[in-house]
Amino acid sequence: MCLLYKKTIAICILISCAVLMHMSAMAATFKQGFYIDPTDSLTVNEVSQQPFRHYKDNLHLGFIDGSVWVKIDIDTYTTQTDRAQKINEDQVLILSPFVLEKITVYEPFNQGWKTQSGGSLASLASRICPYGMHCFILTNEENVAQKMVFIKIKHTGYLTLKSEITSISALATITAVYTESITFAQSIALSLFIVSLVLILIDRSLFIVIYSVMQLSIFLYIVFASGKMYLFFPLTSVENFSYLNYQFVNLRIFLIIFLGYAFTKNYAPPNTYKQMIYLLLACSIFAFFLIAFDHMRLGIYLYVITIALNLPVQFYGLQKSVNMPINIQRLLKTSYLVFTSVVIYGYINIFTGSETLTDRGAEFIFFTNYRLNGLAFGVVVFLVLIFKYYDEKIKSILREKDLQIDVETSRINNEKLKERQTLIDILTHELKNPLTTLRFATYSLNQKLASDSENQSRTHRINATLDRMDQMITQVANSNKIDRFQIEQSPIEVNAKALITQIIEDLLPSDVPLQRQFDMSVPEKMVFFGNTQMLVLIIENLISNALKYSKPNTLISMHGHQDHEPLCPP
Predict the structure, then answer these.
(1) Pick from 407, 570, 550: which is nearest to 493 by CA?
(2) What is the pLDDT of residues 327-367, one digit of tens each?
(3) Half-sphere exposure of residue 236: CA atoms within 13 angstroms, side-chain side
(4) Any idea of the CA torsion for 508, 514, 519, 522, to the nearest 10 degrees?
């Protein structure tokens, strides 16, 4: 951080020195105009007779067939004092950006023309400027207050031109400022790339990986634009500068689309969104091949259309995502809107060549250039991560509170269950006391009525009923114990026909034969597999309901069949 601060201070000092040098050096002013030669056949003498359209500051003409001529009228002295006092110092014409392929400068000299060639396709040995600008020395002739210079430019991509005239003495300062700014830009881009690698260790998501790749591409582009990459990779030589420049831009568009998808996919966007993203990525890849096979204009048009369509597609994905935090939605929507508006507005100025918008267009293109070192993307990515972790922290706190509520609710329910179980234990214990008394009474009654067979049958039925009640109470008590994990219930095999017959005999009056009331068709070897007491309760309930709700003397049919598998496996 300290080194970064020192570099920032150094750049400010160099810029201040450059301003002072310009103020102290020869203050040349100039007027600019342009003329388009669609056939690329005119000579400088023929072009000098053509009408030139005046423009200010930077020139943006979009795609041009043929060549573009620029006329610069230079007034080497801005005051009468300057005219009276000759300053014997040559001037330097600086043209940028470096992507301009072929430049020819025509300077009047000895009633003829002195020519200088340059451009990104020129030899590196002939350069007097840092990699990123084109410089041409203009001879300072005696007793010449004004000079007219013609510049011929041939370029295969969209054409944008920035021109500046300064003195030889000020060139060194400008070069130092430019070199320092490139070094500063590389440091920022590399620092952001290292930070992205650290983020990968913290959050190994596709979103961070894509951002890291994009930041690496930004760093490599700055190194590429500074000319340092050529020392290690001959593919990045001046002959390929224009081609690689557009491919780097196309790569950034591809990664921007992929970056948005990598984050949105975590929130279950609809399949329609995914399909549209795949289509945009395919368009970006197709633009890559168009540029690779010398269809540069179509390729650039395609990737500009692609980045424009990315805005509504990403908006759609954000809107249809599930459970995406609202603050992240707002941040991403604002970022997409600002970035896309800036890019599209800048490219519209370039493609249309509107002179009334050239200054703003240049500023917009600079804003979206790689010279921002990825800071804009980095800020958005870091804010998204902060909002994401903040949202996850809030959700974690809410989950902990919900868990605490669940634990407390479970504790209260367990206390209520224990109270209910205690009450059932008391009730089952108290219900057994009168059953014991009734058993003793029926036993005494049975002894007294030993000679009365009819009454013996009735007391037998009473005992059977008491047994069933005792079994029911025991079953309730056992179930209560099972709820408290105090005993385990073991199912057994019971003969189905014998059990059903016994229950029917206990329920029917003694004077009603079983065959007259029931038509029972149950296999002899059919068995029930389960708890006997529960089976008795179920079957007794079924038979009781049949007897209760059927008309008198109605024949009740009962049929059974044996399954190969138990209904409830042990």
Answers:
(1) 570
(2) 888 888 888 887 777 777 666 665 554 443 344 444 444 44
(3) 18
(4) 100
CB-count exposure of residue 350 (10 Å: 0-12, 13-18, 19+): buried
- pTM of the entire predicted model: 0.58
Q: Which CATH number fits domain 394-489: 3.40.1000, 3.30.70, 1.10.287, 1.20.120?
A: 1.10.287
Which of 441, 362, 371 lies closest to 225, judged by CA?
A: 371
Fold: same for 2-176 and 490-570: no
* Residue 99: closest CA among 214, 231, 248, 204: 248
Per residue in 47-100, pLDDT tens? 988 999 888 777 776 667 788 899 988 775 444 444 444 445 678 888 877 777
Question: Which residues have a Cβ under 8 Å from the Cβ of 544 and sit 6 or more positions away?
Answer: 507
Confirm or reject CATH 3.30.565.10 for domain 490-570, answering yes or no.
Answer: yes
What CATH number does domain 2-176 carry, 3.40.50.720, 2.40.160.40, 2.60.40.2380, 1.10.3720.10?
2.60.40.2380
C-alpha 538/C-alpha 554 separation (Å) is: 22
The DSSP secondary-structure symbol of 133 reads B
Task: Check if the beta carbon of residue 460 is closer than 8 Å to that of residue 501.
Answer: no
Cα separation, 65 vs 41, in Å, equals 12
Q: What residues form DSSP beta bridges with 84?
A: none
Task: Find, among 309, 249, 303, 232, the residue nearest to 273 by Cα.
Answer: 309
SS3 34: strand
Query: Minimal CA–CA distance to 368: which of 304, 294, 282?
Result: 304
Residue 14 near residue 173 (C-beta atoms within 8 A)? yes
Domain ranges of the chain: 2-176, 203-373, 394-489, 490-570
Strand (E) positions, 110-239? 112-118, 134-138, 146-154, 158-167
